[in-house]
Amino acid sequence: MLIPRVACLLALCLTTLGGCSHGGGGASTTSTTTAPSPPPPSSSHTSVTTYKNDLARSGQNLTETTLTLSNVNSESFGLLRTLATDGKVDAQPLYLSALSLAGTTHNVALVATENDTVYAFDTDSGATLWQTSLLPSGEMPSDDRGCGQVTPTIGVTSTPVIDLSAGPHGAVYLVAMSLDASQNYHQRLHALDVTTGAELFNGPMEIAAVYPAAGGGSNTFDPGDYEERAGLLLLNGVIYTTWTSHCDDAPYTGWVIAYSESTLAQTAVLNVAANSAGGGPAIWMAGGGPAADSSGNIYLLTANGAFDTTLDAGGFPSAGDYGNSFLKISTSGGTLAVADYFAMYNEVAESSSDTDLGSGGAMLLPELTDSSGTARQLVVGAGKDGNLYVVNSASMGKFNANTNQIWQELPGALSGGIWSTPAWFNGTVYYGPVGGSLLAFAVSNAMLASSPTSQTATTFGYPGTAPAISANGTSNAIVWAHENAASGAAVLHAYDAGNLANELYNSTQAANSRDSFGTGNKFITPTIADGKVLVGTTTGVGVFGLL
């Protein structure tokens, strides 16, 4: 979660569910760019410990005091250094402010790669504080399983999660895939000490699961058939993992597997495609982590796959197969169960044509008041069909073969489709569709505007962009966006959150390729904290800040 070490401003913590809370080497492998002087110290001391900052997955940091609308420009802002790694950085880098290691305080980026390596870097100097391999003796990262979506190796793909109160110094939780000498695939949950990289809680834990199927049969989790793409969720002491397939290569089903953060023991299992005969759905969400509300409910989007149009008396799919759906999953009593759902009226046709919701991620909006004065808890999501769906979490709408019974739908609002996750700031939802501009949709009376209130001049090729926000309360709000340029280069953009037509900065503006930082990578979300912006690439992490 986003952990500011300053006095909490309750009005600014509404989307950080649970409010604000307090957080408790080797040789350098980096190359640096020359800066005329070190950046000024930050006074915000904010840690980013989970995908997109909070359990709502809002992508916003409201405690950024260093970066402003006036100083984020190519004259005063740019690339400070690159942090070199041994493989692709598909997971969002996490950040710990003022972490004490061996009696010295460091601002730390925790970075995981597809070669099963985890690094702790000092973001101010670029030094490697520690580095550890998650591979047991005789093992290597997985091959790509014949699928080009994560290639050439699969190691750590999903964004980890950190709990600074776990273990003696804090723990980072990760899922790593590997291949042993006997050609057996493994998926393991690791808990590492954030100050040393050492394994905690007798880890790692080998991931295995069995779930019943109709007719007395069962589904068995085969680690070679899956990868952990969506970010990890830490909720009430439990780590939730969600699983996707390699391309759409059967057999695969829809696993949600939970583990105790303190013991790594498995606590619950749910399969949302248990009777699909291996035909899915899987859980992708473009790397977006499942969201969670203050009552302990989990929200996610599923991809194309089996959906039972025959409903039971409660309106749920009769065999429990939830392809192409919004899901609300209850964690009550330590068990997992689908509490509510929404599937569009043409869901079977969309699944059959691979035009599914699961290419995008879900985001919870803060409590909003509608035109009648009633408080609403809403969830937004979008996928390949280009429609923007807004669902009431208290009554999600289920399935109706003739119409979508949901809070709001904006047909075609996201032309090109979504392979990314949205962001939220100060009454506005931000979306970055494929081949289109980054779009801002203002919210009034718990309804999104029918058309964008502002948009960027830049258009973003595949996979679009997954924006993130920095602001000091409601002032100096900046939208940060990563682009995979046609040239193959990674590009960082910064826009005025109040008017996306106003681009403040991009990393191609400075002369002599000063701010070039590597090859573009898909599903990348910038991490912004303490005056720095961290952006993953195929070979490491670019660190941006004031020059």
Quick recap of the structure?
With 547 residues, the protein is an all-beta fold. The protein contains 1 helix and 46 strands.
Structural Rg:
22 Å
Structural class: mainly beta
Secondary structure: number of strands? 46
Beta-strand content: 35-45%
The major beta sheet can be summarized as: 6 strands, antiparallel
Mean pLDDT: 93
- N-to-C span: 28 Å
Task: Identify low-pLDDT runs.
Answer: 4-42
Percent helix range: under 10%
Description:
With 547 residues, this protein is mainly β. It has a domain at 1-89 and 425-547. 1% of the residues lie in helices and 40% in strands. The protein contains one helix and 46 strands.
Task: Please give the structural blueprint.
Blueprint (H helix, E strand, L loop, with lengths): L1 E3 L25 E3 L13 E3 L11 E2 L15 E8 L9 E8 L2 E9 L4 E6 L5 E6 L6 E4 L9 E2 L6 E3 L7 E9 L5 E9 L11 E2 L3 E3 L5 E3 L5 E2 L5 E3 L2 E5 L1 E2 L9 E6 L5 E6 L19 E2 L5 E4 L23 E6 L6 E7 L3 H6 L10 E2 L3 E2 L5 E2 L1 E5 L5 E5 L5 E2 L8 E3 L12 E3 L2 E4 L4 E9 L2 E2 L5 E7 L7 E5 L2 E10 L5 E7 L2 E8 L20 E3 L2 E5 L3 E7 L1
Parallel strand pairs: 4-40, 27-33
Antiparallel strand pairs: 1-3, 2-5, 5-46, 6-7, 7-8, 8-9, 10-11, 10-13, 12-13, 13-14, 14-15, 16-17, 18-21, 19-20, 20-22, 22-23, 24-25, 25-26, 26-27, 28-31, 29-30, 31-32, 32-34, 35-36, 36-37, 37-38, 37-39, 40-41, 41-42, 42-43, 44-45, 45-46
Keyword list:
single chain; about 550 residues; mainly beta; six-stranded antiparallel β-sheet; five-stranded antiparallel β-sheet; 1 helix; 46 strands; about 0% helix; globular
